[in-house]
Amino acid sequence: MQALGIDEIRRGRPRWIPDEATGIWQTAVDRWHVGFVDLSGKQGLLGQVEGRTAQAVIVWLADRDQAWRDAVQYVAIDMRTIFKSAIRRVLPQATLVVDHFHLLQLANQTLTEVRRRVTVTHRGRRGRRGRKGNREWELRNRLARSAARMRGEHVDPLLDELSNLPRVIGAPITVAWNAKEDLLDLLATARTRPDREQVRDLLYRFYRRCADAPMRRCADADLPELQRPATTVETWWPEILAFLHTGITSAGSDGTKRVIKTIGRDAYGFRNPGSQRLRTRCATTRRARGLLDAR
What is the per-residue burial (b if ≥16 Cβ within 10 Å, else e) of 35-64? Predict the structure, then answer.
């Protein structure tokens, strides 16, 4: 197996039991499961473990034979340090890849936080909830769209709408929107075999946008929200660069997680975690699904 996907899923409510010796309540059933998915072959879900800790991931990986572990070249994860530390310990030869979906989600979340903060700050209680008449709220869906997927005649009116807003509202939103688009332009180079200079220029443009936002673009309003995406990209840059070069994502893990959630809803929940893992293992193995479809 060349590529492995690791992702978490919440299975239900936790259960607690008191320790007879100390009287301290301890977790009997964890609300989280971690799944391991074959992203390059036809095996589907390889297994699940209860708990969301680095030790749980380490134990499952350590139970595989050495030849299986040596064959893993890439591991796609979301931005979880517990997964990162576990992989570095058990699969040191594997290249970690961060799924770009979470970066896109972070960029849009940052833009939403800026929009909501400046609206509440300068419109008062009227801006606490979106309402007709607050133009920045009415543009929220267009702001979340990628400019690369919009026609030019739609992008220019959007920027004009932002410039027509009061400066204390429109300027911070425009800066946050441009920072989001810079990050999207960087991630869009995946699967295009970008050269080093292209990646460097796009990364520098994103960093510069986040750093200069409070000083040049909007001197009358600080944008602390932009520090988080810049820090996140800096922290996870080796894994992001691996995504740009390989194009590997955790889409297979997310698709498997969706099937697991569907199985849980159809069963109205599972009281026994072992039964849930068995049912989801049968439902998410591609070979088993093929047999069921053939029938």
Answer: bbbbbbeeebbbebbbbbebebbbebbeeb
Closest CA to 273 of 33, 7, 61, 53: 33
Given a contact cutoff of 8 angstroms between Cβ atoms, the answer to whether 81 and 110 are in contact is no
The residue type of 278 is L
Tens digit of pLDDT for each residue in 220-229? 457 889 999 9
* Amino acid letter, 229: P
- If one counts every other C-beta atom within 10 angstroms of the C-beta of residue 22, the result is 8
Per residue in 238-264, pLDDT (tens digit) is 999 999 999 998 888 888 888 888 888
Alpha helix ranges (H) inside the chain: 54-62, 66-71, 81-90, 100-123, 135-138, 140-144, 152-164, 167-187, 196-212, 227-235, 237-246, 251-266, 273-284, 286-294
> d(Cα 57, Cα 125) in Å, to the nearest integer?
47
